[in-house]
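ok, trying the design again with the full structure, not the truncated one.
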């Protein structure tokens, strides 16, 4: 078993074949969730899994599970998977690599007639990208109970088309209850979507933590007045106040290295006129850190800065902290590390900056993530790129992490 390796060429060919569904001129993919193209991609996945001896189940959220029996089929399954949907200007690897790495593990086990201890399952999660229907990671979110099934199925796209109908149209509105499968561990292989592994010249990222996120709407309310007739000391300038907060958000991130991040990406100015001092400025704030305590302290720093600034400038600053996504712990990533070490790949601990289906699966089962480098750290872009060797390494690590988890699997 220790000498077992995946087939690099077959994995690459599968990636290229899948990329034809929604292929763009610039070499990327436009395959939005639950479109006809997504349906074709799903059909190909299902046919590949059936050809390698799997039985297929589809749940009410359109999530697909291809099951390969093991020695002891009462044991919880070792599951891997990711998503086949892409951004409108997406690449060939985000998500797809995680799904097809699973297919390649399946094929390798199948052709070598390997009977694993626990059953293996290969999954495709509906609408991970959140591009056509909001929110992101919708299928896995419903599976683990973070979102309500009916609410999500009734979501509409920009044309008013309903997710339930769209899934039905492509043949993937199943009847299994989401969350009802017997799963013991979940693994997801994914391109890093960032520059760290490439920068460190490292083949495998052992993902230990998933980014925690705090989202805010901040409103500064001052008073509109004439830009030419209002002396500086008599102004209540909402924009100048907002600018100080924007700068402070960057400072907060810098004060919490190496993982602190702070972003203001959206702003509305009222009345938005060249010669009127702005009376109201509304903007977003996004603070991130994989450490829950540091993220809380970043929150405290922002809140107290805004409070003091409001007093100093004698105007109103409302900080609406409306969303908190707790950092994720990937407790099965030790299996990933053991596998990387055994196979002789260079590896390092890393955290996931973006959301992934595995972040939600970590709610209900020990989960692990394998990251592989991507060129210049670029993703959500048609030029997203990686190499056959980088995919090969990630897929071999996935297979051995799954085998390791399978050997140690016990009854729930
Ligand atoms: Zn993805």
């Amino acid at each position: 078993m220790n000498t077992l390796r995946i087939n690099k060429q077959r994995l690459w060919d599968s990636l290229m074949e899948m990329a034809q569904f929604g292929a763009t001129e610039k070499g990327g993919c436009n395959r939005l969730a639950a479109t006809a193209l997504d349906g074709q991609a799903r059909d190909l996945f299902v046919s590949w899994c059936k050809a390698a001896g799997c039985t297929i189940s589809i749940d009410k959220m359109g999530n697909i599970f291809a099951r390969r029996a093991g020695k002891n089929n009462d044991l919880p399954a070792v599951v891997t998977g990711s998503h086949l949907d892409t951004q409108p200007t997406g690449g060939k690897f985000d998500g797809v690599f995680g799904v097809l790495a699973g297919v390649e593990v399946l094929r390798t086990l199948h052709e070598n007639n390997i009977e694993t201890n626990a059953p293996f399952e290969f999954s495709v999660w509906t609408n991970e990208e959140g591009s056509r229907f909001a929110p992101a990671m919708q299928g896995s979110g419903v599976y683990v109970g973070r979102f309500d099934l009916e609410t999500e199925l009734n979501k509409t796209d920009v044309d008013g088309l309903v997710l339930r109908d769209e899934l039905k149209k492509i043949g993937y509105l199943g009847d299994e209850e989401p969350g009802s499968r017997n799963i013991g561990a979940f693994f997801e292989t994914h391109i890093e979507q960032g520059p760290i592994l490439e920068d460190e010249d490292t083949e495998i990222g052992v993902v230990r933590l998933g980014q925690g996120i705090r989202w805010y709407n901040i409103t500064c309310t001052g008073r509109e007045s004439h830009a030419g007739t209002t002396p500086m000391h008599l102004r209540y300038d909402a924009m100048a106040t907002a600018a100080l907060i924007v700068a402070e958000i960057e400072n907060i991130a810098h004060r919490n290295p190496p993982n602190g991040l702070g972003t203001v990406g959206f702003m509305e100015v009222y009345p938005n006129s060249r010669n009127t001092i702005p009376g109201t400025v509304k903007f977003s704030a996004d603070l991130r850190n994989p450490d829950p305590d540091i993220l809380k302290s970043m929150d405290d720093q922002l809140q107290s800065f805004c409070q003091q600034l409001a007093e100093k400038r004698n105007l109103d600053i409302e900080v609406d902290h409306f969303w908190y996504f707790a950092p994720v712990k990937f407790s099965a990533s030790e299996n990933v590390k053991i596998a990387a070490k055994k196979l002789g790949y260079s590896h390092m601990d890393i955290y996931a900056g973006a959301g992934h289906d595995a972040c939600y699966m970590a709610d209900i089962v020990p989960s692990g993530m394998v990251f592989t480098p991507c060129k210049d750290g670029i993703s959500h872009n048609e030029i997203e790129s990686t190499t056959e060797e980088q995919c090969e390494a990630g897929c071999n690590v996935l297979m051995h992490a799954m085998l390791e988890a399978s050997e140690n699997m016990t009854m729930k």
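Keeping the full-length input from now on. The chain is about 35% helix and 20% strand.
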